[in-house]
Amino acid sequence: YMKMLFFSADTAEVEHVSREFTQAGIPCEIHQQKRSAGRSHSPDAELWIQNDRDCHRALLLCVQLGIGFARRRTEDTDLDFEYSGVPPR
After folding, report:
1. Strands 44-49 and 3-8
2. Which of 23-27, 34-38, 68-72 is most confident?
3. Which residues, listed in sequence order, are joined to residue 6 by a DSSP beta bridge?
């Protein structure tokens, strides 16, 4: 059965991930979803893989290519503490 693997308000990003999946032999579909009232007017694009058995390979491909949910942030993040393994108080 089909499984939604990724969604974004950036349709171009979802289309890019879809092309990568297709090139890797992972059948997928893009579905457009409208957001609920009171939220942004732009629709979310969802990427659905057609075969559940391809899920693990699709996730690994995202991580390998740094796309979709595994996209690396380019801007620096501000942290108020240095990570020491102990949560801040």
Report:
1. antiparallel
2. 23-27
3. 47
Task: Dump pLDDT digits (tens) for 76-89.
Answer: 545 444 545 555 55
pLDDT in tens, 46-64: 999 999 999 999 999 999 9
Q: Which residues pair with 72 in a beta bridge?
A: none
Q: How far apart are CA 82 and CA 80, in angstroms?
A: 7
CB 3 within 8 A of CB 48: yes
Contacts of 56 (CB under 8 A, 6+ apart): none
* DSSP calls for 19-47: HHHHHTT--EEEEEEPPPTTS-SSPEEEE
Extract the tokens encoding 71. Answer: 């996209």
